[in-house]
Amino acid sequence: MKKQWLVVLISLVCMVGFQNCSKVEFSGTEDSATKGGNPDLPGDPGGNPGGDDGGGTIDQPCEDVAAIQRHTKIVFVVDTSGSNVKNCRSGDMDCVPATDPMKAFRGGAIETFFNKYQAKTNFEWGFFTFSGSSARSLIDDGVSERLSNTAAEMSQAIVDFKSVKDEGGTPYKAALSLVKRTIEADADLNAASDPQYVVVFISDGYPSDYNIVGDFASSQAASDIDALKAVAPGRVSLSSIFYGNLQEPEAVQLLTDMAARGDGQFKNVAAGGTIEIDDLIPGKVCQ
What we know:
Layout: H1 2-18, E1 72-79, E2 87-90, E3 93-96, H2 104-117, E4 123-131, E5 134-137, H3 151-161, H4 172-184, E6 196-203, H5 214-230, E7 236-244, H6 249-261, E8 266-270
Parallel strand pairs: 1-4, 1-6, 6-7, 7-8
Antiparallel strand pairs: 2-3, 4-5
Helix pairs in contact: 2-3, 4-5, 5-6
């Protein structure tokens, strides 16, 4: 009889103690954010941010970016194509307003995020731009591109970004290739700290160096993102942002697919809108 009363008592304690528990995770509206893998892209099994990292351990999600303890490298990849300052379909005819002529959206979002977290000693930084037919890093050692562990260098990169000329095409492939090479050369790639690389890809248009047909561009981008993730399996993610005056469905869909393939988040921001970069840190992994 005593054993029966003990079982009942334990059951009541469990019901009361756990009825209000819930798992903390990022959530977004369906029309503005996507998360995890994309089954529509060939060979993509789906992402698992905040879950098994492929090494047999379970990552613990944080409530916010400030709580992240893991060695984390935030890598911004930013469109500086001509449509940011002038968007004409034929010469000087049929023009629409520039998407971000003063870099208020691009620079503002990055600077706000950086100012919030520049004191975090476990965070490092990368800043790349792409236009014309090439990409470049705003942080380098005079010989090659690199990521930085000093807030001063990232702060200077933000200043330098404001003077970068917006011109030419939108070379996604060149940008992804340069980021891949930079991470491959990172001195911490195989360090005991096991860093995670969070790539935030920001663009207002469709790529100029992929096949112009949507399905082919998506396949080419998927291949490049797979190669990027393979540099550090389970430790590289890619999120994306579309911004601008023209709602270009092909560009929006491609950037959506890229974020899904990269186990990240996607955001679609109308002209004049704002964004919290915090919302694009997938899984918000603590350790």
